Amino acid sequence: MRVVPFATLMALGVLAVSSSYAGACEEIEAQDLNSRIEAALTLAETSGSLDADGQDRLTALREDLSKASDAQLQAQDSGDSAKLNEVCETYEDILKRAESLSQ
User: Fold this and answer.
1) Distances in Å between the alpha carbon of 15 and those of 9, 64, 94?
2) Cα 37 from Cα 45, distance rounded (Å)
3) Which of 29, 54, 75, 99 is close enough to 50 for a disulfide, judged by CB 3.0 to 4.6 Å?
4) d(CA 46, CA 10)
5) pLDDT in tens, the chain (103 residues)
6) To which H or E segment does residue 22 belong?
């Protein structure tokens, strides 16, 4: 019997979680993504390493986050799960772009 190292299992778990919102996003997952985006944007903003282009991208991401947050509230208020799934997809895209600012 082959033993799988713990680190490998952890990496697979992280990969599974990162794509777990696709297709079935609920309010808690949407809020989690929103919080992760806020953290990534704050980290990029306070790092002091953004040039003018980076600052422009940060501003655009904050605007995209604001629009997505509004869409999230509307989806939750109306109980529209399809719209909430779209919001989570948008959040995932924004999160990827936000995390790239700090790299």
Assistant:
1) 10, 25, 18
2) 12
3) 54
4) 30
5) 344 344 333 333 433 444 444 557 999 999 999 999 999 999 999 988 889 999 999 999 999 999 999 999 999 999 999 999 999 999 999 999 999 987 7
6) none
Place of tokens 């604001």: 66
| C-beta of residue 88 within 8 angstroms of C-beta of residue 31 | no
Question: Which positions ≥6 away from 58 have C-beta within 8 Å?
Answer: 41, 44, 45, 50, 101
Contact yes or no for 80/26 (Cβ under 8 A): no
For residue 19, the 8-state DSSP code is: T
* CA pair distance 15, 10, nearest whole angstrom: 9
DSSP state of 20: T
24: CB partners within 8 A, 6+ apart: 85
Residue 48 region, left (φ>0) first, then alpha (ψ -120 to 50), else beta?
left
- For the whole model, what pTM was predicted? 0.76
